[in-house]
Write a structure and sequence with these properties.
The structure holds 2 protein chains of 2 kinds. By secondary structure, chain A is an all-alpha fold. Helix content of chain A is 75%, strand content 0%. Chain A has 2 domains: 34 residues, no CATH class; 127 residues, no CATH class. The two termini of chain A are 23 Å apart. Chain B is mainly alpha-helical. Chain B has one domain. In chain B, helix 4 packs antiparallel against helix 5 and helix 5 runs antiparallel to helix 6. Chain B is globular, with a radius of gyration of 20 Å. Chain B starts with a helix and ends with a helix. The chains are: A mainly alpha, B mainly alpha. The interface between A and B is large, with 91 and 90 residues.
Chain lengths: 169, 180
């Protein structure tokens, strides 16, 4: 893949440029690493809260109950009900959604309409709750609600569009 | 987030209470354990990129990047803070290139800087851009499709790209319209 060349090339070009600018590479690189621990520490409580919530959500069967409840709405919008759980899970956890995507691909086949739809939905949406927990973890004061609502709504509309596009492309 | 946490927590806990009270604590612990292992692997990833970004700063490359992106970021984020511009534009670029783990530390620092400067609009814009998926090539999906024997694993590229572009544009538009 492109990315496997990209990363070593990025590092080599930056470090050559830095050498040219007389940067002491070891001192500088380790100085940057210093910030990693405080960053993780401020992140951890939110990460833990969201992941506990997503474990509860999935294992309590709440996600199944909700999937069944919204199935008629989804099919009315052109989203196959089999994707309901994936659509519900994605905002909470990337690894949970990846597991569901694998399950759909192995059950229905990677080239089926369902499999392709699931891939497009997965690829064009993000883990909104997880990201909001992470991004606002270091910010002081009240965390804004509106961007989360916007992101969730837009992601849902995009799922509808993705399922529609998969019929033609 | 408090509302969602409370609602999902109560409903899930009630379901556990009715159907399988024994699995309630293990589920919580599993979440905690995931957070612990995930933070360790994130720590490793952040070490790599934060070291990289520090070299970028010290070599003066980051201020050059800021100058380059300042005109765009003035419009997009309504900011003139050079450091925030570097962080935010770096976050967006790393996202588009699909560099694993690199966008997050930049995004966190940019959000912190925007929020502390009282610029909730910029923080919301950056978050929505990130949360509507910017990745141009869906590498995870392509790898998964290949492992499940798809005829051409990359054939979802086009619909995904269209959907992603659409969601990012719609998201940005919504922030412009609704966030003060």
């Amino acid at each position: 893949m492109i990315a496997s060349y990209l990363i070593p090339v990025l590092f080599l070009s930056l470090f050559s440029y830095a050498l040219f600018k007389k940067v002491r590479l070891y001192d500088c690189f380790t100085d940057g690493i210093k910030q990693a621990v405080p960053l993780i520490l401020s992140l951890f409580p939110y990460l833990c809260g969201v992941l506990m919530l997503s474990a509860l959500f999935e294992q309590s069967g709440l996600s199944d109950v909700l999937t069944n409840a919204i199935a008629p709405v989804l099919s009315a919008l052109g989203i196959p009900p089999e994707l309901g759980k994936l659509v519900l899970m994605k905002p909470f956890s990337g690894s949970g959604a990846t597991a569901l995507l694998s399950e759909i691909l192995s059950l229905h086949g990677a080239d089926s309409y369902l499999g392709r739809c699931a891939c497009v939905c997965f690829g064009s949406s993000e883990t909104v709750f997880y990201l909001s927990a992470v991004y606002f973890s270091s910010a002081k004061g009240k965390k804004p609600v509106l961007p989360v609502v916007i992101a969730l709504t837009v992601n849902f509309i995009t799922v509808i569009l993705g399922c529609f596009l998969c019929r033609f492309l | 987030m408090n509302g969602i946490f409370t609602a999902v927590f109560f409903l899930s806990a009630l379901l556990f209470l009715i159907f399988s009270p024994d699995s309630f604590l293990p589920a919580l612990l599993e979440g905690g354990q995931k957070a612990a292992t995930l933070s360790l692997s994130l720590l490793a990833v952040y070490c790599v990129w934060l070291g990289f970004f520090r070299v970028m700063e010290q070599s003066g490359l980051s201020s050059r990047i800021s100058t380059l992106f300042l005109p765009v970021c003035k419009k997009l984020f309504r900011t003139e803070d050079k450091r925030a511009v570097f962080l935010a534009s770096g976050n967006l670029t790393a996202n588009m290139l699909g560099l694993p783990g690199a966008p997050t530390p930049l995004g966190i620092q940019a959000t912190e800087r925007f929020m502390n400067a009282g610029n909730a609009y910029a923080a919301s814009m950056l978050f929505v851009l990130n949360a509507t998926s910017l990745q141009l090539i869906p590498t995870t999906v392509i790898a998964l499709r290949a492992s499940y024997g798809a005829q051409s694993p990359a054939d979802v590229f086009l619909p995904t790209l269209i959907a992603t572009l659409f969601s990012t544009l719609l998201g940005a538009l919504c922030v412009r319209l609704f966030v003060k």
